[in-house]
Amino acid sequence: MSLLRLSDFDYDLPRELIAQVPPPQRTGSRLLHVDGPSLADLEFTDITRLVAPGDLLVLNDTRVIKSRLAATKRTGGKVELLLERLLAPDRALFQLRVSHPPTTGSELVLPGGARATVIERRERFYELRLEGDMPLLNYLDRHGAVPLPPYITRAAAADDEARYQTVFAREPGAVAAPTAGLHFDSALLAELEADGVAIAWLTLHVGAGTFAPVTTEDLEAHAMHPEWYQVPNMTAAAIEACRARDGRVLAVGTTTVRALESAATADGRVHAGEGETRIFITPGYTFRAVDRLLTNFHLPKSTLLMLVSAFAGTETIRAAYAHAIRQRYRFFSYGDAMLLERARTG
User: Fold this and answer.
1) pLDDT for position 319
2) Residues 299-326 pLDDT 10s
3) What is the bridge-based pairing of β-strands 249-252 and 198-204?
4) Is residue 14 within 8 Å of residue 330, measured between CB atoms?
5) DSSP label at 203?
6) How far apart are the C-alpha atoms of 108 and 92, rounded to whole Å?
7) Residue 297 pLDDT > 50, yes or no?
8) How far apart are CA 296 and CA 92, in angstroms?
9) d(C-alpha 309, C-alpha 277), whole Å
10) Which end of the chain has a smaller Cβ tally under 10 Å, C or N?
């Protein structure tokens, strides 16, 4: 196998194609159906005719925490905190944007009269302990801001609190939305179920590391940040039942793919359970659990672009992205969607 290089996953994107706001309606995006060399420009609601009775839709029900905080040092210096992951009711890992990194034991002054103590530094993150009158999760819900991705250049607005969250979000813990799921509203999900499409859920809490750039040209040297996931018994059983009736498993989002592939064994069976995953999917990977993938368009040189290239084929994705740019699709979190068929092998 040839060495995979970071530069193999680069492309030029006009800045005006980066979606800064969501469409007026959740289901109002465009959908590019990618089946090998075949590309079809559709509306997102056309997904109802692209799935069949007996297919299974697997969704990530993680809920985005209002995880961005403004703080100050005791010296008065400003600090921006971005949650990476919760560790305990009063402790978490944060990314810190600050001119001079704080030392272990130092305190940060938070909104609402709370304080945070620096426990230790862990590579790019800091472990902080909250000292306040409520658990950290409740505190963030009251004082935190919606953590819009860095390529959205405006400040978070009131409607982002609802729109940067799927309609089926229920398990708090993510710092970024599983954006493929943003295209669904309750009516569309109900229509799919009425048509005989089964629906199942799992949880993968997206961490701030999802926005961390890949810094090494040799991809074998890249290490993924761990993310917690859980596959319920009902979902593992739904996948097995789908296989038994010759249905297709459609993963909604790369986070769902990462959870399912982490929980799958070599024979393709998905086992219920929870754990941390560092799975890094690049071209050459053999998919075990997923037949089809619904996803948004991803950043150049990102691990998610590598994942979709592994799924649909590198040349197929290059052609699809070039087509999407020519056709003025909207990119990234609030942008349009793609339905990818898994590359055929053999």
Assistant:
1) 98
2) 999 999 999 999 999 999 999 999 999 9
3) unpaired
4) no
5) E
6) 14
7) yes
8) 29
9) 20
10) C
